Automatic annotation (TrEMBL):
Region (Disordered): 1-23
Protein name listed in UniProt: Uncharacterized protein
InterPro entries xref list: PLAC_motif_containing
Keywords, in A-Z order: Membrane, Transmembrane, Transmembrane helix
Organism the protein comes from: Lotus japonicus (Lotus corniculatus var. japonicus)
Pfam families: PLAC8
Length: 187
């Protein structure tokens, strides 16, 4: 084959192209494995919990109940901003909800998806079918329940996602010492 190369009996393979990748003609790959390595199983899923308030507990927060009755787009916008973790603003979500309600008369088709997102984020009991039915037949009560649930989870709904993040990080202190500086010149 090539001068100075050794030929093995029964091993007549063409030379490998210079690609920079190791090539094995034996058909077996030698991976070093450790018998001590045990893959960790994924953590068990968190158990589902009940909603903190019932669907018809609207009178525990009369201000939100009245707001939702007369202007559900505000309540939906506030809920959507928290559920989306600030990626959409309260105003944009509320305006889209209003547009869908005006065009097709069913804002519940949009808001029921947010109920599902909220359930999965906070590990609440329910399913997609119940979310849709709840929003279709009792839109105001379902929006109020979602609003109360987020309040009970510790969110201040009036200041939005970014206000809540700022409020929570205010308690975290930054290092108050300045970095050490060298005095004089050194080589």
């Amino acid at each position: 084959m090539y001068p100075g190369s050794e030929q093995k009996a029964g091993y007549n393979q063409p030379p490998a192209a210079a690609t920079g990748f190791p090539v094995s003609y034996s058909g077996t790959t030698n991976y070093s494995t450790s018998s001590d390595y045990q893959p960790q199983p994924p953590p068990p899923p968190k158990p589902l919990v009940e909603w903190s308030t019932g669907l018809c507990d609207c009178f525990s927060n009369c201000g939100n109940c009245c707001m939702t009755c007369w202007c559900p787009c505000v309540t939906f916008g506030r809920v959507a901003e928290i559920v989306d973790k600030g990626s959409t603003s309260c105003g944009a979500s509320g305006a889209l909800y209003t547009l869908i309600t005006c065009l097709i008369g069913c804002g519940c088709l949009y808001s029921c998806f947010y109920r599902g997102k909220m359930r999965s984020q906070h590990h609440l009991k329910g399913n997609d079918c119940l979310d849709c039915l709840t929003h279709c037949f009792c839109e105001s009560c379902s929006l109020c329940q979602e609003y109360r649930e987020l309040e009970n989870q510790g969110f201040d709904m009036k200041i939005g996602w970014h206000g809540n993040v700022e409020q929570r990080t205010r308690g975290v202190q930054m290092a108050s010492t300045a970095p050490a500086m060298e005095h004089g010149m050194s080589r």
